[in-house]
Amino acid sequence: MYTKSLDIETRIYGGDNHPDVAASIKNIGIVYHNKGDRAAETEMYTKAYHIFLKVLGPHHPETQGLKPFVPSVPAIVAGGVPETGKRDGH
Questions:
Q1: pTM of the prediction?
Q2: CA pair distance 65, 22, nearest whole angstrom
Q3: For 68, which DSSP code?
Q4: What is the distance, to the nearest Å, from the Cα of residue 9 to the centroid of all Cα atoms in its chain?
């Protein structure tokens, strides 16, 4: 069902650079999560995250909501600086 919706939305919006397309991809990720397929779940969440980031920006709730589920996205600390895990210049 979600894949059919995704196909239709992609055609309607002329590609995947639309929040509705990203939302459908995120929903497919939820299905994979419920099925226990972590690799597919992460792939869908990552794709949706990057679309949300591009079309809605880094501070939008949809973008922020997926950030914890995307392993390649560094945590952002105060001031918008990516968290590197290093402290005090060490």
A1: 0.75
A2: 13
A3: G
A4: 17
